[in-house]
Protein backbone atom coordinates (compact mmCIF):
# COMPACT_ATOMS: atom_id res chain seq x y z
CA UNK A 1 0.00 0.00 0.00
CA UNK A 2 1.43 3.35 -1.00
CA UNK A 3 -0.91 5.60 0.97
CA UNK A 4 -3.65 6.24 -1.57
CA UNK A 5 -7.35 5.99 -0.78
CA UNK A 6 -8.70 2.55 -0.05
CA UNK A 7 -11.94 0.91 -0.99
CA UNK A 8 -13.52 -2.45 -0.59
CA UNK A 9 -13.78 -4.97 -3.39
CA UNK A 10 -17.40 -5.60 -4.34
CA UNK A 11 -18.29 -9.09 -3.08
CA UNK A 12 -20.61 -11.64 -4.62
CA UNK A 13 -22.45 -11.84 -1.32
CA UNK A 14 -21.89 -11.28 2.37
CA UNK A 15 -23.53 -12.54 5.51
CA UNK A 16 -23.46 -10.95 8.97
CA UNK A 17 -23.93 -12.84 12.19
CA UNK A 18 -23.09 -11.71 15.75
CA UNK A 19 -20.73 -8.94 14.63
CA UNK A 20 -18.80 -11.21 12.30
CA UNK A 21 -19.08 -11.47 8.55
CA UNK A 22 -18.61 -13.94 5.75
CA UNK A 23 -17.66 -12.45 2.42
CA UNK A 24 -17.92 -14.41 -0.82
CA UNK A 25 -15.56 -13.39 -3.58
CA UNK A 26 -15.30 -15.39 -6.80
CA UNK A 27 -15.24 -18.96 -5.53
CA UNK A 28 -13.80 -18.10 -2.12
CA UNK A 29 -15.30 -17.35 1.27
CA UNK A 30 -13.48 -15.21 3.82
CA UNK A 31 -14.42 -14.99 7.50
CA UNK A 32 -14.03 -11.39 8.69
CA UNK A 33 -14.13 -10.39 12.35
CA UNK A 34 -12.85 -7.78 14.79
CA UNK A 35 -12.53 -4.40 13.10
CA UNK A 36 -12.91 -6.00 9.69
CA UNK A 37 -16.68 -5.60 9.19
CA UNK A 38 -16.54 -1.94 10.28
CA UNK A 39 -13.65 -1.25 7.95
CA UNK A 40 -15.44 -2.86 5.02
CA UNK A 41 -18.57 -0.82 5.64
CA UNK A 42 -16.64 2.44 5.75
CA UNK A 43 -14.67 1.57 2.62
CA UNK A 44 -17.76 1.38 0.46
CA UNK A 45 -16.47 4.78 -0.68
CA UNK A 46 -12.76 5.38 -1.35
CA UNK A 47 -11.25 6.68 1.88
CA UNK A 48 -7.66 7.44 2.90
CA UNK A 49 -6.30 5.47 5.85
CA UNK A 50 -6.15 8.50 8.16
CA UNK A 51 -9.79 9.41 7.48
CA UNK A 52 -10.80 5.79 7.95
CA UNK A 53 -9.07 5.70 11.32
CA UNK A 54 -10.74 8.92 12.37
CA UNK A 55 -14.18 7.63 11.45
CA UNK A 56 -13.62 4.37 13.28
CA UNK A 57 -12.57 6.25 16.41
CA UNK A 58 -15.72 8.36 16.12
CA UNK A 59 -17.85 5.25 15.70
CA UNK A 60 -16.22 2.89 18.19
CA UNK A 61 -14.27 5.17 20.50
CA UNK A 62 -10.49 5.25 20.94
CA UNK A 63 -8.95 1.92 21.96
CA UNK A 64 -7.56 2.32 25.50
CA UNK A 65 -3.76 2.25 25.58
CA UNK A 66 -3.39 1.44 21.91
CA UNK A 67 -2.60 3.40 18.80
CA UNK A 68 -5.77 3.42 16.71
CA UNK A 69 -3.77 4.10 13.55
CA UNK A 70 -1.71 0.95 14.03
CA UNK A 71 -4.79 -1.16 14.76
CA UNK A 72 -6.62 0.08 11.68
CA UNK A 73 -3.53 -0.33 9.50
CA UNK A 74 -3.22 -3.93 10.68
CA UNK A 75 -6.89 -4.62 9.96
CA UNK A 76 -6.57 -3.08 6.51
CA UNK A 77 -3.45 -5.14 5.82
CA UNK A 78 -5.32 -8.34 6.73
CA UNK A 79 -8.30 -7.43 4.54
CA UNK A 80 -6.00 -6.45 1.72
CA UNK A 81 -4.11 -9.76 1.93
CA UNK A 82 -7.46 -11.54 1.67
CA UNK A 83 -8.32 -9.55 -1.44
CA UNK A 84 -11.20 -7.70 0.23
CA UNK A 85 -9.71 -4.19 0.14
CA UNK A 86 -7.73 -2.48 -2.56
CA UNK A 87 -6.01 0.80 -3.08
CA UNK A 88 -7.75 3.09 -5.53
CA UNK A 89 -5.36 3.42 -8.42
CA UNK A 90 -4.53 6.94 -9.66
CA UNK A 91 -6.92 8.01 -12.36
CA UNK A 92 -9.55 5.45 -11.33
CA UNK A 93 -13.15 6.59 -11.31
CA UNK A 94 -14.32 7.99 -8.00
CA UNK A 95 -14.29 11.18 -5.96
CA UNK A 96 -10.92 10.47 -4.35
CA UNK A 97 -9.14 9.94 -7.63
CA UNK A 98 -9.16 13.62 -8.41
CA UNK A 99 -8.71 13.21 -12.13
CA UNK A 100 -10.47 15.19 -14.84
CA UNK A 101 -14.05 14.21 -15.63
CA UNK B 1 -30.37 -46.99 -36.19
CA UNK B 2 -30.43 -47.29 -32.42
CA UNK B 3 -32.93 -45.16 -30.51
CA UNK B 4 -31.45 -42.32 -28.47
CA UNK B 5 -31.12 -42.79 -24.71
CA UNK B 6 -33.13 -39.95 -23.11
CA UNK B 7 -31.58 -38.62 -19.90
CA UNK B 8 -32.25 -35.80 -17.46
CA UNK B 9 -28.99 -34.52 -16.00
CA UNK B 10 -30.09 -32.12 -13.26
CA UNK B 11 -31.73 -29.44 -15.48
CA UNK B 12 -30.40 -30.64 -18.83
CA UNK B 13 -32.37 -32.95 -21.09
CA UNK B 14 -29.91 -34.96 -23.13
CA UNK B 15 -30.42 -37.62 -25.78
CA UNK B 16 -27.46 -39.97 -26.15
CA UNK B 17 -26.90 -41.25 -29.67
CA UNK B 18 -24.58 -44.21 -29.68
CA UNK B 19 -22.68 -44.93 -32.89
CA UNK B 20 -19.52 -46.51 -34.20
CA UNK B 21 -18.14 -50.03 -33.94
CA UNK B 22 -19.84 -52.14 -31.26
CA UNK B 23 -22.62 -49.55 -30.96
CA UNK B 24 -25.34 -52.04 -30.07
CA UNK B 25 -23.50 -53.47 -27.11
CA UNK B 26 -22.38 -50.00 -26.01
CA UNK B 27 -25.98 -48.73 -26.28
CA UNK B 28 -27.22 -51.55 -24.09
CA UNK B 29 -24.47 -50.98 -21.56
CA UNK B 30 -24.92 -47.19 -21.38
CA UNK B 31 -28.71 -47.45 -21.14
CA UNK B 32 -28.30 -49.72 -18.11
CA UNK B 33 -25.62 -47.56 -16.51
CA UNK B 34 -27.66 -44.36 -16.86
CA UNK B 35 -31.10 -45.82 -16.11
CA UNK B 36 -31.19 -43.82 -12.85
CA UNK B 37 -31.16 -40.59 -14.89
CA UNK B 38 -33.69 -41.72 -17.50
CA UNK B 39 -36.50 -39.40 -18.56
CA UNK B 40 -39.71 -39.74 -20.52
CA UNK B 41 -38.76 -38.50 -23.95
CA UNK B 42 -41.85 -36.44 -24.68
CA UNK B 43 -39.68 -33.72 -26.20
CA UNK B 44 -36.25 -34.05 -27.75
CA UNK B 45 -33.23 -33.09 -25.67
CA UNK B 46 -29.77 -31.87 -26.49
CA UNK B 47 -28.20 -34.48 -28.74
CA UNK B 48 -24.90 -35.92 -27.62
CA UNK B 49 -23.26 -38.61 -29.71
CA UNK B 50 -21.16 -41.28 -28.12
CA UNK B 51 -18.80 -43.46 -30.09
CA UNK B 52 -15.84 -45.75 -29.77
CA UNK B 53 -13.08 -44.10 -31.76
CA UNK B 54 -12.34 -40.53 -32.74
CA UNK B 55 -14.94 -37.79 -32.25
CA UNK B 56 -17.17 -37.57 -35.32
CA UNK B 57 -18.64 -34.13 -34.65
CA UNK B 58 -18.23 -31.31 -32.15
CA UNK B 59 -20.93 -32.41 -29.70
CA UNK B 60 -19.64 -35.96 -29.49
CA UNK B 61 -17.96 -37.92 -26.78
CA UNK B 62 -15.49 -40.45 -28.03
CA UNK B 63 -12.75 -42.69 -26.77
CA UNK B 64 -10.75 -45.19 -28.82
CA UNK B 65 -10.81 -47.53 -25.81
CA UNK B 66 -14.29 -49.08 -25.51
CA UNK B 67 -13.63 -50.07 -21.92
CA UNK B 68 -12.77 -46.50 -20.98
CA UNK B 69 -15.58 -44.83 -22.92
CA UNK B 70 -18.19 -45.07 -20.12
CA UNK B 71 -15.88 -43.20 -17.75
CA UNK B 72 -15.11 -40.58 -20.40
CA UNK B 73 -18.84 -40.22 -20.93
CA UNK B 74 -19.52 -39.87 -17.20
CA UNK B 75 -17.04 -37.00 -16.94
CA UNK B 76 -18.66 -35.25 -19.90
CA UNK B 77 -22.21 -35.75 -18.63
CA UNK B 78 -21.31 -34.55 -15.13
CA UNK B 79 -20.00 -31.37 -16.74
CA UNK B 80 -23.25 -30.94 -18.67
CA UNK B 81 -25.24 -31.53 -15.49
CA UNK B 82 -23.25 -28.98 -13.52
CA UNK B 83 -23.48 -26.39 -16.29
CA UNK B 84 -27.24 -26.89 -16.37
CA UNK B 85 -27.56 -26.26 -12.65
CA UNK B 86 -25.30 -23.21 -12.48
CA UNK B 87 -27.18 -20.18 -11.20
CA UNK B 88 -30.18 -22.30 -10.21
CA UNK B 89 -29.08 -25.14 -7.96
CA UNK B 90 -26.75 -25.33 -4.99
CA UNK B 91 -24.40 -28.11 -6.09
CA UNK B 92 -22.31 -29.81 -3.45
CA UNK B 93 -19.50 -32.31 -3.98
CA UNK B 94 -21.38 -34.87 -1.99
CA UNK B 95 -22.82 -38.34 -1.93
CA UNK B 96 -26.54 -38.40 -1.32
CA UNK B 97 -28.72 -41.13 0.14
CA UNK B 98 -32.36 -40.88 1.13
CA UNK B 99 -35.08 -42.83 2.81
CA UNK B 100 -37.23 -43.97 -0.13
CA UNK B 101 -40.47 -43.56 1.86
CA UNK B 102 -40.00 -40.27 3.73
CA UNK B 103 -37.58 -38.66 1.26
CA UNK B 104 -35.27 -37.60 4.13
CA UNK B 105 -31.85 -37.23 2.55
CA UNK B 106 -28.34 -36.82 3.86
CA UNK B 107 -25.63 -34.96 1.96
CA UNK B 108 -22.21 -36.46 2.70
CA UNK B 109 -19.79 -33.80 1.51
CA UNK B 110 -16.25 -34.95 0.76
CA UNK B 111 -13.41 -34.18 -1.57
CA UNK B 112 -12.97 -36.25 -4.70
CA UNK B 113 -11.40 -39.63 -4.05
CA UNK B 114 -12.16 -39.66 -0.34
CA UNK B 115 -14.99 -42.11 -0.02
CA UNK B 116 -18.25 -40.82 -1.49
CA UNK B 117 -18.74 -43.76 -3.82
CA UNK B 118 -17.68 -46.27 -1.19
CA UNK B 119 -20.18 -44.78 1.22
CA UNK B 120 -22.99 -45.18 -1.32
CA UNK B 121 -22.02 -48.78 -2.03
CA UNK B 122 -21.73 -49.64 1.63
CA UNK B 123 -24.72 -47.84 3.16
CA UNK B 124 -26.90 -47.37 0.07
CA UNK B 125 -28.63 -50.76 -0.17
CA UNK B 126 -32.14 -50.37 1.25
CA UNK B 127 -32.01 -46.64 0.66
CA UNK B 128 -32.50 -44.38 -2.32
CA UNK B 129 -29.30 -43.52 -4.14
CA UNK B 130 -29.27 -39.85 -5.15
CA UNK B 131 -25.70 -39.36 -6.36
CA UNK B 132 -22.10 -40.25 -5.61
CA UNK B 133 -20.75 -36.96 -6.91
CA UNK B 134 -22.97 -33.88 -7.15
CA UNK B 135 -25.81 -33.33 -4.72
CA UNK B 136 -28.02 -30.56 -6.09
CA UNK B 137 -30.39 -28.57 -3.90
CA UNK B 138 -33.18 -26.20 -4.76
CA UNK B 139 -33.60 -23.13 -2.58
CA UNK B 140 -36.39 -24.83 -0.66
CA UNK B 141 -34.09 -27.67 0.43
CA UNK B 142 -35.48 -30.31 -1.91
CA UNK B 143 -32.94 -32.42 -3.74
CA UNK B 144 -32.64 -32.88 -7.49
CA UNK B 145 -31.44 -36.48 -7.85
CA UNK B 146 -28.51 -37.21 -10.11
CA UNK B 147 -28.34 -40.98 -9.94
CA UNK B 148 -25.41 -41.37 -12.28
CA UNK B 149 -23.52 -44.64 -12.51
CA UNK B 150 -21.20 -45.06 -9.57
CA UNK B 151 -17.57 -44.46 -10.48
CA UNK B 152 -15.81 -47.26 -8.66
CA UNK B 153 -12.06 -47.05 -8.35
CA UNK B 154 -10.06 -50.16 -9.11
CA UNK B 155 -7.32 -51.40 -6.84
CA UNK B 156 -4.79 -49.36 -8.86
CA UNK B 157 -6.53 -46.23 -7.42
CA UNK B 158 -6.53 -44.59 -10.86
CA UNK B 159 -8.81 -46.51 -13.22
CA UNK B 160 -12.52 -46.27 -12.58
CA UNK B 161 -15.31 -48.58 -13.60
CA UNK B 162 -18.79 -47.20 -14.10
CA UNK B 163 -21.32 -49.35 -12.29
CA UNK B 164 -25.12 -49.15 -12.51
CA UNK B 165 -26.77 -48.35 -9.15
CA UNK B 166 -29.11 -51.30 -9.59
CA UNK B 167 -26.27 -53.78 -9.83
CA UNK B 168 -25.12 -52.62 -6.37
CA UNK B 169 -28.64 -53.03 -4.92
CA UNK B 170 -29.14 -49.25 -4.82
CA UNK B 171 -32.66 -48.02 -5.56
CA UNK B 172 -33.24 -44.85 -7.56
CA UNK B 173 -36.97 -44.37 -6.95
CA UNK B 174 -38.90 -43.07 -3.99
CA UNK B 175 -40.55 -40.10 -2.34
CA UNK B 176 -39.31 -36.67 -3.42
CA UNK B 177 -36.04 -36.21 -1.53
CA UNK B 178 -35.35 -33.26 0.77
CA UNK B 179 -32.26 -32.39 2.75
CA UNK B 180 -32.57 -33.63 6.32
CA UNK B 181 -28.93 -33.34 7.38
CA UNK B 182 -25.50 -32.49 6.08
CA UNK B 183 -22.28 -34.25 7.00
CA UNK B 184 -18.79 -33.00 6.19
CA UNK B 185 -16.84 -36.21 5.85
CA UNK B 186 -13.15 -36.65 6.40
CA UNK B 187 -11.74 -40.11 5.88
CA UNK B 188 -8.61 -40.73 7.89
CA UNK B 189 -7.32 -44.25 7.27
CA UNK B 190 -5.53 -44.13 10.63
CA UNK B 191 -8.68 -43.20 12.57
CA UNK B 192 -9.49 -45.92 15.07
CA UNK B 193 -12.91 -47.09 16.21
CA UNK B 194 -16.18 -45.21 15.92
CA UNK B 195 -16.37 -41.99 13.89
CA UNK B 196 -15.65 -38.78 15.75
CA UNK B 197 -18.54 -36.36 15.35
CA UNK B 198 -18.38 -32.63 15.88
CA UNK B 199 -21.10 -30.02 15.47
CA UNK B 200 -19.88 -27.09 13.44
CA UNK B 201 -20.94 -23.48 13.66
CA UNK B 202 -22.61 -21.86 10.66
CA UNK B 203 -19.61 -19.82 9.51
CA UNK B 204 -17.15 -22.71 9.82
CA UNK B 205 -19.56 -24.89 7.88
CA UNK B 206 -19.99 -22.38 5.09
CA UNK B 207 -16.24 -21.79 4.77
CA UNK B 208 -15.65 -25.54 4.52
CA UNK B 209 -18.60 -26.12 2.19
CA UNK B 210 -17.72 -23.32 -0.20
CA UNK B 211 -14.65 -25.26 -1.33
CA UNK B 212 -16.84 -28.25 -2.11
CA UNK B 213 -19.40 -26.56 -4.32
CA UNK B 214 -19.73 -25.94 -8.05
CA UNK B 215 -20.68 -22.51 -9.41
CA UNK B 216 -21.57 -21.14 -5.96
CA UNK B 217 -20.99 -17.55 -6.98
CA UNK B 218 -23.51 -17.79 -9.81
CA UNK B 219 -26.40 -18.23 -7.39
CA UNK B 220 -28.47 -15.33 -6.14
CA UNK B 221 -27.21 -14.43 -2.63
CA UNK B 222 -25.44 -17.76 -2.14
CA UNK B 223 -24.29 -17.18 1.44
CA UNK B 224 -27.85 -16.39 2.51
CA UNK B 225 -29.06 -19.51 0.74
CA UNK B 226 -26.50 -21.61 2.61
CA UNK B 227 -27.43 -19.99 5.91
CA UNK B 228 -31.15 -20.57 5.31
CA UNK B 229 -30.54 -24.23 4.49
CA UNK B 230 -28.06 -24.96 7.26
CA UNK B 231 -29.56 -22.98 10.13
CA UNK B 232 -32.45 -25.41 10.47
CA UNK B 233 -30.68 -28.74 9.88
CA UNK B 234 -28.09 -30.82 11.69
CA UNK B 235 -24.61 -30.19 10.29
CA UNK B 236 -21.85 -32.50 11.47
CA UNK B 237 -18.15 -32.83 10.77
CA UNK B 238 -17.30 -36.50 10.89
CA UNK B 239 -13.91 -38.17 10.83
CA UNK B 240 -13.88 -41.89 10.11
CA UNK B 241 -11.87 -44.68 8.59
CA UNK B 242 -14.37 -47.27 7.36
CA UNK B 243 -17.72 -46.49 5.74
CA UNK B 244 -19.45 -49.27 7.69
CA UNK B 245 -18.88 -47.37 10.94
CA UNK B 246 -21.07 -44.53 9.61
CA UNK B 247 -24.14 -46.79 9.58
CA UNK B 248 -25.56 -45.81 12.99
CA UNK B 249 -25.11 -42.11 12.20
CA UNK B 250 -27.06 -42.42 8.94
CA UNK B 251 -29.75 -44.42 10.73
CA UNK B 252 -30.09 -41.54 13.17
CA UNK B 253 -30.11 -38.81 10.51
CA UNK B 254 -32.42 -40.26 7.85
CA UNK B 255 -33.72 -43.52 9.33
CA UNK B 256 -32.50 -47.09 8.90
CA UNK B 257 -32.22 -48.83 5.55
CA UNK B 258 -35.46 -50.55 4.47
Your description of this structure?
The complex is a heterodimer of chains A (101) and B (258). Chain A is an alpha+beta fold. Chain A has one domain (6-84): Outer Surface Protein A, domain 3. Chain A contains three helices and five strands, in the order ββββαααβ. Chain A has helices spanning 36-42, 49-60, 68-81, and strands spanning 6-8, 13-17, 20-25, 28-32, 85-87. By secondary structure, chain B is of the alpha/beta class. Chain B folds into two domains: 5-85, no CATH class; 90-254, Rossmann fold, CATH 3.40.50. Chain B contains six helices and 15 strands. Chain B has helices at 23-33, 69-85, 116-123, 202-210, 222-231, 247-254; strands spanning 5-9, 12-19, 46-52, 60-63, 90-98, 104-109, 128-131, 134-137, 143-144, 150-153, 160-163, 178-187, 196-199, 213-214, 235-240. In chain B, strands 5, 6, 7, 8, 9, 12, 13, 14 and 15 form a nine-stranded mixed β-sheet that branches. In chain B, helix 1 (23-33) links the parallel strand 2 (12-19) and strand 3 (46-52). Chains A and B meet through strand 2, strand 3 and strand 4 of A and helix 4 and helix 5 of B. Chain A: This is PqqD family protein. Chain A: It comes from Marmoricola endophyticus.
| Main sheet specs of chain B | 9 strands, mixed
Number of strands of chain A: 5
Q: Please identify, by name, the CATH architecture of the largest domain in chain B.
A: 3-Layer(aba) Sandwich
Most extensive interface = A-B, 14 and 12 residues
Helix content of chain A: 25-40%
Instruction: Let me know the average pLDDT of chain B.
Output: 95
Question: Sheet with the most strands of chain A?
Answer: 3 strands, antiparallel
Kindly identify the CATH topology of chain A.
Answer: Outer Surface Protein A, domain 3
Please trace the helix and strand order of chain A, writing H or E for each element. Answer: EEEEHHHE
Number of DSSP helical runs of chain B: 6
**N-end to C-end Cα span of chain A:** 25 Å
| Gyration radius of chain B, in Å | 18 Å
| Count of all domains of chain B | 2
Quote the average pLDDT of chain A. Answer: 89
State the assembly state of the protein chains: heterodimer
Output the structural class of chain A: alpha+beta
Could you tell me the strand content of chain A as a percent range?
15-25%
Query: Which stretches of chain A of 5+ consecutive residues score pLDDT under 50?
Result: 94-101
The count of DSSP E runs of length 2 or more, i.e. the number of strands of chain B, is 15
CATH architecture grouping of chain A? Alpha-Beta Complex
Protein name (chain A): PqqD family protein
Amino acid sequence: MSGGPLRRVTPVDELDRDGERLVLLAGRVVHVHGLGPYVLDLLAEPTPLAALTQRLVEELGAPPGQDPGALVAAAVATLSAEGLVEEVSPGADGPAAGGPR
Amino acid sequence: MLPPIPLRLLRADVDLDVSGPGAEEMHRSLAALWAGCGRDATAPGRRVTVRVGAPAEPESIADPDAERLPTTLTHALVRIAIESGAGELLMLHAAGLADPVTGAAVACVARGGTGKTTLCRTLGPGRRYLTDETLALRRDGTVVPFAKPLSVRRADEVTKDEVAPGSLALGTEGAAPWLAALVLLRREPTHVGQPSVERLGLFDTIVALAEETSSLDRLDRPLHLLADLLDVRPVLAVTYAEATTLGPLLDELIGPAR
